[in-house]
Amino acid sequence: MATQVSSGNEAEKPASKALSRLKAAGIVFTLAGLGLFIYFIYSTGLSEIGEGIAKVGISGFALILFIYLLRVSVRASAWSLSVYGPYELRFRDTFPAVIIGEALSSLIPLGILVSGTAKAVAVRRKLPLVVGLSSVATENIFYSFVTALFISLGSILFLRSFDLDPEYVWLIDVLLVFIVLLLAFVTLMIVRQWHWASGICERLYDRGMLTGILKSGRLQVRLFENLIYGYYRRYPKRFVPILLLQAAFHSLGVVEVLFILSKISGVAQSLTTAFFLETISRLVTIVFKLIPFVIGVDEAGAEFVVKTLAIGAGIGVTLAIVRKARILFWAIVGVVLIVKRGISLKDIRKVHEEVEDIG
């Protein structure tokens, strides 16, 4: 018994250290992002930013809030379709839960680690927690798949829009072919239900390779495969609607950028420009999600794109700030829902830790 307790403590230490390092990294990145934010505010000038915000106006900001409302709605609809029977979630259940998850993801450092759990906790009165977590994971898989496509396409088009050395053009073409082949392979893998990923992990673990990672990681890979394959067997006709809803989420993001950009610059902007900006914004959000509101880095990414496209200095910073105000508004709505439903952040973290222990 003593040996088992000792083993349990030893297993907990690496996880605890990893979380501590992650928290420390989150603090460092947040401070660096805050420094970047102050720098861009100073270099752009408060008056110029104020003029840009004034051009958007109250009615314009209301429309921006509505566009994001639609974005939340399509993800909530996609989640509703991701629930395994005999359970079900209606739109009125998933919509507030998505807002709660997004609020936690935006407001607190490492919020991305508990946002999915928060969604499941928010609907625990409608279906068992394990079912809620599985449905969230399934929807996230579809979201990640479409997001990867969106970012890859935007990045490739962005690079190809400028004069590059032939070597870079060749490299981009190779990457594009690789992405197409990878997507085709993943599609075939799902249809044929190949368990290659978990099989490789099991072989590596049996041979004593990467045992620290694969001790629980191989089980999570198997769970990942079973979730997708099981869902495909039962609901193959839902795949396309969910993918289209995820695509609509990103498309509405492009529409939002196009509207804000046109308001700030005072002239109509091209759809391609808005697409590039949304692509970079989504990439920055994924890479720097440890930072609340992706403060600083979002402004840096937007400013890089507008300068590259020669739209005008400072427009990217103003664009990012306007979108940050939109995030803040809906985050406040999410906090109100959390308080109203009596959801405790402590309970969410407890559930998240229990799920990690099971994994």
What is shown here, in short?
The protein is an all-alpha fold and 359 residues long. It is built from 13 helices and no strands.
Fold and architecture overview:
The protein is an all-alpha fold and 359 residues long. The protein has one domain (24-358). It contains 13 helices and no strands. The protein has helices spanning 2-44, 46-80, 91-107, 112-122, 129-160, 166-192, 196-206, 211-234, 239-265, 271-287, 297-308, 315-341, 345-358. Helix 3 crosses helix 12 and helix 5 packs antiparallel against helix 6. The radius of gyration is 22 Å and the shape is globular. The two termini are 22 Å apart. The model is unreliable at 1-15 (pLDDT under 50).
Topology of this structure?
Elements: H1 2-44, H2 46-80, H3 91-107, H4 112-122, H5 129-160, H6 166-192, H7 196-206, H8 211-234, H9 239-265, H10 271-287, H11 297-308, H12 315-341, H13 345-358
Helix pairs in contact: 2-3, 2-5, 2-9, 2-12, 3-4, 3-12, 4-5, 4-13, 5-6, 5-9, 5-10, 7-8, 9-10, 9-12, 10-11, 11-12
